[in-house]
Structures are given as C-alpha cells and as structure tokens.
Amino acid sequence: MLQAWVSRLEKDKLAASYVKVIFANLSGMLGAAVDDGLIARNPCRAGSIRLPKENRPRVQPWSSERVLSVVGALPDAYACMAVIGAGCGLRQGEIFGLAVGDIDFLRGVVHVRRQVKHVSKRLVFALPKGQKERDVPLPSKIGEAVAAHLAARPARAVTVTLPWAVPDGKPVTVDLLFTSRETKAVNRNYFNTYVWKPALAKAGVIEAKPEGEKYGEARSYGMHAFRHHYASVLLDAGESVKALSEYLGHSDSGFTLRTYTHLMPASEERTKKAVGRALSAAVDGLASRNILGECPRCTPGSSLEGLAAGQRYLRPRCRSTARTRAGAGGVGWGRFPWCACSRSRSR
To answer: Are the C-beta atoms of residues 146 and 100 closer than 8 Å to each other?
Structure first.
C-alpha cells in the first residue's frame, strides 16, 4: 500500500526530493507511534519500499562575463549583493541578513550569522541553513565593493527589527547591509520579481517581457548561480573540497563533492608532477646503483673495469629470458629487456 502511495505521488509529477521529504515526515510520525506502543513496527522501514531517484542535472556555473553583466544590470542599491554572492558564496537569505558588523575588513572575514527567511508568510531572522554560523574569507576586491556600498548609504544606521526564528519569536534588531526602499528587510518575493528577473533580462540571461507582464519561473537562473560560480572558481584554483564545503555552509563534504566534482580540473598532469617531485631523489638513487641503468655490454662508453675478476657477462638469449653462465666464482649480468643486447638477438 505504501509503495502504491509513493507511486501515485510520482504520477502527480512531484519532485523526487519533495516525495522524499513527505515520506520522511510520514516515517517520523510512524516512528513516534512505535515508540508510544501504538503500532508494532514502522512500515516505512520495510526493505521493499522504493523511493524515486533524484535526477539532478549537472551544475553549469556562470562565466565571469555573465556575472559581470548581471552585476552591471542590477540597481546600484543591490549590485553589491551580486558581488558578495559571487565573491563569498553566500545564499540569498544570508546576504539579506548580513549586518554591517558582520564584515571584518581588518581580518578579511565575513561572519555569516543569520539569514532572512519566510515563516508563515512573515519575515524573520534565523540561523543560516544547517543551524550553524560560519566564517568566509573576504577577498580584498570584494571588501572594496562593500566599502563603496557603505559609503553610498545614508550616514545613519539602517536598523531593522524582526522576530527570531518564528513570527512570535524574540525581537532582534540588526544594522542590515541591504534594505528595501522602505528601509525594511528585503523580501525575496518582491526582490526576485521586480529586481532580479528584470536585471537578468537586461543582461540578456532570460527573455525580456513587455512592461506589465510578469516573468515566469526561473529557478535555474536564481541568485544561487553565484554560489555555483564561486565554487567553480575555487575548485579551478585548487582549493580543497573540505574548505569549499565549509565556506558554502554544507554540513556534508560529500554533498559538495557530488555537486561539484565535474567542475574539478583534470588532475593527470598535476599527479605526474607531484609524484615526480616526491620520488625524483629515490629514482636517481636507483639509477646510480645501475638497478634501472644500462647494459654495459651494449651501451657506448660503458666500462666493465673494476668488476670482480672471473666474472663473465653474456647477452640474454631472448627478450624474455636472461641466462647467466658463471665461471669459477663468476656471476652473470642479469636481464635488461630494453637494452640493445635483447633487441639484437632472437630465440
């Protein structure tokens, strides 16, 4: 019965990720019922249940040219949002929740302490996604852009008060870096409809609409694209997946790897150079002992002087077998499959 219900959700064209969320909520409730002794077992844990697989398309990060085009198309009051998104990898709600005090110009750090989110159709402050604060490096050029944005703001502080976490939560007042025209916290619905999408159209990212006509869904062109650009730049520069995961605020480095592994630069040449640097001394040492050296029988300029008396060296009879004939106390040379001796004789 449960499998039929899951299949019906799929037929209703719900996203696989959403189906999994619904199923997880049901499993949680049934698990609580097991704990309370109301049912014997949780049917959601049956091995026969098959949830739909998520078929996520590969992330295609924006080019630097597109990022610059969108930054130039945004109104002056919001252009720095795009710079922070592409230069620090913050989520949209985290950018909306940035306070002036969160920017540490001296240390070159952005403290990501809160986000602005919707709860029951009301704006609230809350911890960043994953319920964890984090610090992100602030590049000097991004710091200059933030300083210019602050210089263009009114001299007075732009403080905004919102409840914390829930609509009836404790009021928290913050000197926000970005506000609406009414000096309120930025509402993502208004911003996406009347600021973001028109800027995308102006930059040529999406098709422009006649005045008064609303833009359709553009999830693949949301502000999250700046995070993807940030990730691609760091990976191309050789940053570790673990560090990138921390900067992006992912709770699992594996998720970061699965999302961006195809953006990692080809590593064959780096591998060759790294191993070569690490083992060059060892290989040189082997060569000096003639373990990887050349056959003294066929190499020009080689010498047998200094060898113990009575030793006689014979060429291998074939490429695969090296036979040694030793006289009294004599020892054979051994096998050099790549030497001229081997190549000059056949079986």
So the answer is: no
